[in-house]
Amino acid sequence: MGGQVDKGGPTTVITFTPQYSITQRLIDI
Predict the structure, then answer these.
(1) Residue 1 has pLDDT above 50, yes or no
(2) What's the pLDDT at 15?
(3) Which domain of life is it from (predicted)?
């Protein structure tokens, strides 16, 4: 169970990282 929860944590962060980067770039432009 611990391993499954650990895998779900980083996966969500990695998925949100690209979306946040695009938003920051649009604001910069």
Answers:
(1) no
(2) 57
(3) Eukaryota
- Which residue do the tokens 């779900």 mark? 8
Half-sphere exposure of 3 (CA within 13 A, CB side): 0
Full DSSP string of 1-29: -HHHHHHHHHHHHHHHHHHHHHHHHHHH-
> Tell me: the pLDDT tens digits for 8-29?
555 555 555 666 666 767 666 5
Domain spans in the chain, listed from the N-terminal domain onward: 1-29
Residue 18 is which amino acid? P
